[in-house]
Design goal:
Elements: E1 3-7, E2 14-18, E3 23-27, H1 47-57, H2 74-83, E4 92-93, H3 94-100, H4 107-115, E5 128-129, H5 142-155
Parallel strand pairs: 4-5
Antiparallel strand pairs: 1-2, 2-3
């Protein structure tokens, strides 16, 4: 059963989903792949996720330490693990992620796995950019991707070039 909660953020309300063992999803209002059927709202199950997200948005946290249990194929999970290695305030291209997982020809498959990442922000798919460094694709919406990257650059003491 999918339990859920919401947390306020500068991007608007975020939907958190879980299975009682860990976080299975984090979705913006604009996210196109959020679940349509939810089980009970259980706010206390998401207290630590809520705290860590509030710290992130306040510029006090640059990494997350939460149990994640999102379902996915072995390839998707490999891509999502690689995303978690992209440093705060940094970006990688889809090609670089493909190379990172040892499959340099899988650029399009990496893009597909990235777009299916159910735990946005915490699994930072927003840090993946096009081969020319431009912002492309983000299931949570382009303006959210730009805001997240600019937020990270600003709180990491870097300046935006976008």
């Amino acid at each position: 059963m999918i339990i859920h909660s919401y947390v306020d953020s500068p991007l608007g309300p975020l939907l958190l989903t879980g299975d009682g063992e860990g976080l299975t999803g984090l979705y913006t209002d604009q996210h196109g792949r959020k679940p349509t059927e939810l089980g009970p709202r259980v706010d206390e199950e998401f207290a630590e996720a809520r705290t860590q997200l509030q710290e992130y948005f306040a510029g006090e946290r640059d990494d997350f330490d939460l149990p994640l249990t999102a379902p996915g194929t072995p390839f998707q999970r490999a891509v999502w693990q690689a995303l978690r290695q992209i440093r705060y305030g940094s970006t990688m291209t889809y090609r670089e992620v493909a190379e990172e997982i040892g499959n340099p020809k899988a650029v399009r498959a990496v893009g597909s796995a990235n777009s299916r990442n159910p735990i946005s922000i915490i699994v930072p798919c927003h840090r993946v950019v096009g081969s020319d460094g431009k912002l492309i694709g983000y299931a949570g919406g382009f303006s959210a991707k730009k805001w997240l990257l600019d937020h990270e650059l600003a709180t990491a003491g870097l300046s935006s070039t976008r």
